[in-house]
Write a structure and sequence with these properties.
mainly alpha, about 70 residues
Length: about 70
């Protein structure tokens, strides 16, 4: 989402997590969902320093994870 690629793309991707290709996004989606579902402000919460994603945004990410894209 627009909340992720600002920090997680390019050669200086934060935490070494690059989210600028389908394979990198799909391969890390379970971890990403766990982190956006944490309580805002808790350790490891994403987006770091930002607001919690809306229920609709989280549902969209969950739907993407459940797609059979292989």
């Amino acid at each position: 989402s627009q909340y992720c690629v600002g920090c997680h793309s390019g050669v200086a991707a934060s935490g070494g997590l690059m989210l600028d290709s389908f394979n990198s996004v799909y391969g890390s989606m379970a971890l990403n969902l766990e982190r956006v579902n944490r309580e805002q402000g808790s350790l490891g919460f994403m987006p770091s320093g930002g607001n919690k994603l809306s229920d609709e945004e989280i549902a969209s990410l969950q739907s993407f994870l459940e797609m059979d894209c292989e």
